[in-house]
Each structure stands twice: as structure tokens, then as C-alpha cells.
User: Which sequence fits this backbone?
């Protein structure tokens, strides 16, 4: 294929995937506009796999054609001259979206500045950068209003708490990442206690892992568990409820389930299932309050139980149908992950299944992609798109860095996950590709 033919093929992918996304939105109503001030019904749909599949190709093809056609210096500087996170931190911490809810026609930046005590000309520059990104509308000169994207930053939205986690803490790890790579004491270590985030706050006398630090800060712990609910919308995680046949099973163990980011929707959609939530006592104390408020019928009908578990030292409740781990294994280096999975293996009955719901990193080598994809259930990118979907899968690679910064851990390729599972005595049965993350289904080997 000639270079021009590759570009033409990318244009075709852009056109086709965009039309696919438009058609999906039209099933729920009108197509959204960048300046609309309300969410679209599809935005909170449980099953967004088709939409995410279309957007994955659209984002990947758009970025690939721009990178191909733009001068390299143009693109290289764009990689680093990115201050969105600093601006988002300001508006998120100052609750700008909540303030603007009272002003649907917009609020002049001078008045907004008075409400949050920030110099107005600086605030105008922050708001204009974000509006250029599609977050907020500038409805008149220096007059800003909410739009569909800025509504994500409302206090009531759990995605905001994931955003705050990144802009307040993970960025600190990024700021010292190079130093950790060159520090002879820790450069080759994968100990969670010396992850870049912990390295960055060690000057305050902080010790232990990220989770140890969080356990000592009640507000941070509560915010973290709330942010896990945001993953339902960020990753489209709840699609597992419609794609995996939970109706065939009667018991599910949510290992490291926190306050029930997965289990609460499960209890509401599959009332045939008895749920056990395993986590540390402080997380379960918060969980009990939330379940009493949001799903009291599950408690009244004895469809959920809360059991303390340290998954490094204890075996989960035994002989259940499904053991579900969402975004757990990626928090830990290989040694710790193997311990977790080995303890779960001890709990399995002959027909039990382990579901590990995480990102699966794809290789850029198309030879490797072909090996992994068809027979194991992992979708491959159409040519001439990069074999791993390029920027269409960018969040999984950014998340890999998040895990490195926060925990000295990682997102894994399918081969990485298979190696861990084999050591722990698990056998891969199927990969459920949900367009962003995957659910890897294992049985006892």
C-alpha cells in the first residue's frame, strides 16, 4: 500500500467510524452538540461497547493521520506543552461547574473570579483553554457557561473524584518520575513503597504504599472509593453486566470490591445473584452505609454480605461461582499479584470462574496482534491503523503509567496476564473484549 493509499484508508476509517457513532446516538435521540448543556441519554448507558468500538477507531485514525501530515516539530511539542491538567485542577477544586449551574446563560469571568477568589485575568485564560478543549462554552466575550463535558466536573459526578486523584496526586509522581529512574537506591525496584508518588511525598515523612497512605487519610480514602464508581463511566465497565451471562450463576464474590462500584449495579440488574464483597474493614464500613442508602432491598433480602479480607494473607470465601476482580491486579507488581491470584485459586470449586477486569495492552507489532487476537477474543485494529489502535487505546497506556507512578505496578499485555495466571494455577477460558477494557475469564487449571 502506498503512503497516499494509507492516508485514504485512514480517511475511510474516520468517515465510517464517525457515522457508526452518529447512528448509535440517534438510537437514543438527537446527536449531541459540543455546546449543549445537558448529558445525552447514551452518556450514561450501561452498555457502551459499540460506541467505544467506533470511537476507538475514530480517535486512532484521526490522531494517526494528523501525526502523519503535520510537521514532526509541531507534533513533538504538542506532546509536552499540555497544561490541561493544571487548569482542570483549578476548576475542579473551586467547584466552577457547580457554580455555573445557577447561570445557564453564562457568568462573566469577573463575577466568577469573585466567587472563587482567583485573579480574573488569570481565570479567563484558564477558562478559555478549557473551552478550546470543549470543556465549558464561552457564550460571549469572557462569559462562560457549562456544557455537556463540564458537567462531568460536578460534585455529584463520581468521575470528578477520579480526575481529582490524578490532578492532585498522580501528577506529583510524574514530576519526579525521571529522578526515580536514576536514583541508584530504587531505580530497579518494583516495591510499591518506592513508587514515584510515594517518593514525591516522602519528604513529609510518609511511609508505606499508596494504600497505606490513603488509609491514614479518611477523606482521601472516601474520595478514592467514590472515584472507583467513576470507572463505570470512564471505562464503560458496566457493560460486563450485559455481556457476561451472570443470569446463569447464583453467587459472585467481589474481591477488593470497595463500596460496591461493580456490586451495586450487579445487585440491581441481576437479582438472582448472592454477592459477597471482600475488602479491608475501613472500606466495608463505608460500603455498608452506601448500600443502606442506595440498595436497602438487597440488604433486606440477604442478597449481599460484607466480609473482611486481606487478600495477601487470607483465602476468599470458598466454593462460589464467580470471583470478580476489577482494577485490582493492575494495582500490584507481579510478586504481589501472584499471591492474590494464588489465594483466590485456593477458594475455587470445580466449576468456579475468575473474572479479571482490566486493560489489556496490545503490542504495536502486527505479528503479535494477530497471534493474540482471533482465537482469544481480543479485537484487532483494521489496517492501516496501528495494530494497537494507536491513540484510540491511549488511555490504557496512560493508565499503565498511572499504575507505575502510584504503585510501581502496571497494566499488562495478554501474555503478561497469562504468565501470572499460570503460576497461580489458573487457565484462561475466554477474553470478553469490551472495547476499552477486557474481562479475562479463568478456571482452575
Assistant:
Amino acid at each position: 500500500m502506498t503512503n497516499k493509499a494509507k492516508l485514504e484508508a485512514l480517511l475511510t476509517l474516520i468517515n465510517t467510524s464517525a457515522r457508526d457513532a452518529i447512528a448509535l446516538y440517534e438510537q437514543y435521540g438527537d446527536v449531541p452538540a459540543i455546546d449543549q448543556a445537558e448529558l445525552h441519554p447514551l452518556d450514561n448507558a450501561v452498555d457502551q461497547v459499540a460506541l467505544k468500538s467506533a470511537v476507538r477507531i475514530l480517535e486512532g485514525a484521526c490522531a494517526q493521520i494528523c501525526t502523519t501530515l503535520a510537521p514532526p516539530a509541531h507534533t513533538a511539542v504538542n506532546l509536552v506543552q499540555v497544561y490541561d491538567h493544571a487548569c482542570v485542577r483549578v476548576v475542579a477544586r473551586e467547584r466552577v461547574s457547580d457554580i455555573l449551574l445557577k447561570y445557564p446563560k453564562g457568568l462573566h469571568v469577573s463575577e466568577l473570579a469573585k466567587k472563587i477568589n482567583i485573579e480574573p485575568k488569570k481565570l479567563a485564560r484558564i477558562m478559555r483553554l478549557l473551552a478550546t478543549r470543549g470543556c465549558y462554552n464561552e457564550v460571549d466575550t469572557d462569559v462562560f457557561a457549562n456544557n455537556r463535558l463540564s458537567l462531568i466536573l460536578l460534585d455529584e459526578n463520581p468521575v470528578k473524584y477520579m480526575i481529582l486523584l490524578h490532578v492532585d496526586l498522580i501528577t506529583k509522581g510524574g514530576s519526579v518520575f525521571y529522578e526515580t529512574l536514576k536514583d541508584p537506591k530504587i531505580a530497579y525496584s518494583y516495591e510499591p513503597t518506592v513508587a514515584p508518588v510515594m517518593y514525591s511525598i516522602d519528604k513529609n515523612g510518609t511511609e508505606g504504599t499508596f494504600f497505606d497512605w490513603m488509609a491514614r487519610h479518611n477523606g482521601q480514602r472516601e474520595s478514592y472509593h467514590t472515584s472507583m464508581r467513576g470507572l463505570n463511566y470512564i471505562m464503560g465497565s458496566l457493560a460486563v453486566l450485559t455481556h457476561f451471562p451472570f443470569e446463569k450463576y447464583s453467587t459472585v464474590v467481589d474481591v477488593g470490591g470497595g463500596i460496591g462500584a461493580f456490586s451495586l449495579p450487579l445487585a440491581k440488574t441481576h437479582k438472582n445473584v448472592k454477592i459477597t464483597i471482600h475488602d479491608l474493614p475501613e472500606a466495608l464500613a463505608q460500603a455498608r452505609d452506601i448500600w443502606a442508602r442506595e440498595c436497602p432491598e438487597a440488604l433486606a433480602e440477604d442478597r449481599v454480605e460484607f466480609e473482611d479480607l486481606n487478600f495477601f494473607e487470607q483465602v476468599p470465601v470458598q466454593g462460589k461461582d464467580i470471583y470478580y476482580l476489577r482494577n485490582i491486579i493492575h494495582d500490584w507488581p507481579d510478586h504481589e499479584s501472584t499471591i492474590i491470584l494464588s489465594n483466590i485459586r485456593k477458594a475455587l470449586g470445580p466449576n468456579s470462574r475468575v473474572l479479571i477486569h482490566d486493560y489489556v495492552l496490545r503490542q504495536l507489532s502486527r505479528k503479535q496482534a494477530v497471534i493474540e487476537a482471533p482465537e482469544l477474543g481480543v479485537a484487532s485494529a483494521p489496517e492501516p491503523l496501528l495494530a494497537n489502535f494507536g491513540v484510540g487505546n491511549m488511555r490504557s497506556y496512560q493508565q499503565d503509567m498511572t499504575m507505575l507512578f502510584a504503585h510501581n505496578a502496571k497494566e499488562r499485555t495478554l501474555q503478561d496476564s497469562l504468565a501470572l495466571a499460570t503460576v497461580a494455577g489458573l487457565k484462561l477460558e475466554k477474553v470478553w473484549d469490551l472495547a476499552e477494557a477486557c474481562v479475562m475469564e479463568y478456571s482452575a487449571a
Q: What stands out?
A: Residues 3-26 form the longest helix (24 residues).
